Amino acid sequence: xxxxxRISVTIFSYVTEENDRVVQALRNTLPHELRTExxxxxxxxxxxxxxxxxxxxxxxETTEIDAIAxxxxxxxxxxxxxxxxxxxxxxxxLENRSVYFRLDKYKAYQDELFITEGSDVIQVEIAYNAYxxxxxxxENVREFLLHYKLISE
Length: 153
Known about the structure:
Elements: E1 3-14, H1 19-27, E2 40-45, E3 51-59, H2 62-75, H3 78-86, H4 88-91, E4 92-93, E5 98-104, H5 105-109, E6 115-116, E7 121-129, H6 138-147
Antiparallel strand pairs: 1-3, 1-7, 2-3, 4-5, 5-6, 5-7
């Protein structure tokens, strides 16, 4: 089976939002034992010049990524798992060995993890290790995601 390589969770806090709520939404995507970990904070500007802050949590620590993947698998709504399963080919980048999906920022603040296609979201990237080209297939990624209960059968 494929192995987890890295997990990255990123959110944008716009000038019209309360930073502490945005940070809490990101933290709610992490298991309780990791919610106090330091976040990467990058001040930036939108395409229109408005100030914003990018917050990110990224890890390649084996125990942390396993805990996060397990937490996400246990927390995603069944509807989200079914959606990711149906649309896996669009969410999968075999070349970069990553699966990408977006979580509803406002539902995450309320501690509900729901996959969406909106633009004001929490971006999740799950990178995996495949040691041969033969291992790096959508079928193997599907099996890997099923192991963590991130998709439905």
